[in-house]
Amino acid sequence: MSKPRKDQVGTSSSEPLPVIIIGNGPSGICLSYLLSGHAPYVKPDATHPHPLLQRKLAEAAGRCLLDQDLDYLSEGLESRSQSPVALLFDALLRPDTDFGGTADSVLSWKRQEERAVPHLVLGRSPPGGAWHAIEGSMVTLSQGEWMGLPDLQLKDWMRGKRRGLRNSRATAGDVAQYYRDYVIQKGLSRNFVSGALVTGVEMGTSGPKDPSPLFRVSGILTTKDRGQRPFSLWARNVVLAMGTFDNPARLGIPGEDLPYVHHELSALEAATQAGTITPASDPVLIVGAGLSAADAVLYARHYSLPVIHAFRRPVDDPGLVFNQLPKMLYPEYHKVHQMMREKSVPSPSPYEGYCSLPQHRLLLFKEGHQAVLCDPHGHHQVLGVSLVLVLIGSHPDLSFLPGAGANLAADPEQPLSTKRNPIDVDPFTYQSTHQEGLYALGPLVGDNFVRFVQGGALAAASSLLRKETRKPP
């Protein structure tokens, strides 16, 4: 089987690849590892703590996991994901992690060249995807051990770098570097193309005698010398493995495009480093009540910047993410929640320079750095601010798909949403239920944690390997 060559990108290649993966974050990296001939087997002497799963594993002793019935194996497993294969792979990689255990994985890995499926992984940034865009000192929401990929634990990598976890969590900078090093250490670099912006995916068939799907993937490649050139590739299967950080959610109000209004924490970082915003400046207005907004509050407090924090929900709303995080593991986020609660009424507190405005809606932004809000009683309030951060979530950029991918959603009549209306896939192959040959992984299908996106890669790899096995010579 011929191997893909990175120099195919930047040309108009008519030879179709078996697989093109769009997105080079954890989902894409894990799938590339599995498609590169790395095969998981249950260790002969391993005993899984889950009795039913152990019995099923024993029934197929010595058989590669990619060749087994993932539906059967995953039946009866429960944890923090709705995906059965995500639960299965997580249970095999981290057998008792939900109970605070540190048992080793029951899997061993074998390099089997005959299982390799030629593929390319296209991404705009270096391997690791959006992790390279996150401020490096931020700590991960998940425990550090849950950020690792198959056959190279994050803690082992960090030990080699003489680094350690912070309260069992890693920094975003370490995670980004780990993913980049993973691709190198596992010999996957030849499959990864950085600087590739996909602008179109056209769906068709191979021809009148072959009804199987064929995709044309086109875009712009930015080279190392910062030059740009178009590329066009053909593939029999396309995997969507992007995250959700491409398009920050917007309020949709007048003035949101004014230069002092931003939608990414990096804008505050840049302003702080440039000295344009200081503790003597007007307050920074942070909009939102999720973890991104909390990260912005923590960052601003670290630099002693005055903060006004506005959000639509009541401070005691059980739906706030802070109420779902254990206090012992996430003390800094619970500190923000405490600030939100205590500074929502005028009273003495240790949080000077911070003001919380629950149940407030932004109405418009005006020239002259002024924000107009509406309080719970319908009264309008005008605030002078130095900078605004609107951090209310984000959406994937699927503009390169026909109809921006709306027809792929679980409910095609409603807007595609990673939380409420994700791409609809078969839970045991991760192939789209609406388009043969098109797969989706990670947040696009509701798997939002690195710990669980790997199960989708396992399901997709198993399906793609079966297709290659059935393909006539």
Commentary on this structure:
The protein is α/β, with parallel strands linked by helices. Helices cover 23% and strands 22% of the residues. The chain contains ten helices and 19 strands. Strands 1, 4, 5, 6, 7, 8 and 19 form a seven-stranded mixed beta sheet that branches. Strands 10-17-11-12-13 form a five-stranded parallel beta sheet, covered by helices on one side. The protein has a three-stranded antiparallel beta sheet with strand order 14-15-16, with no helix packed on it. β15 and β16 (380-384) form a beta hairpin. α8 (291-302) crosses α9 (331-342). The protein is globular.
What structural keywords apply?
single chain; 473 residues; alpha/beta; 7-stranded mixed beta sheet; 5-stranded parallel beta sheet; 10 helices
* Low-confidence region ranges: none
Largest sheet: 7 strands, mixed
Structural class of the secondary structure composition? alpha/beta
Task: For the record, give the distance between the C-alpha atoms at the N and C termini, rounded to a whole number.
Answer: 10 Å
Number of distinct helices: 10
How much is the average pLDDT? 86
The level of helicity is: 10-25%
Encode the helix/strand succession as letters.
EHEHHHEEHHEEEEEEHEHEHEEEEEEEH
β-strand number: 19
Principal-axis shape: globular
Percentage of β-strand residues: 15-25%
Rg over CA atoms: 24 Å
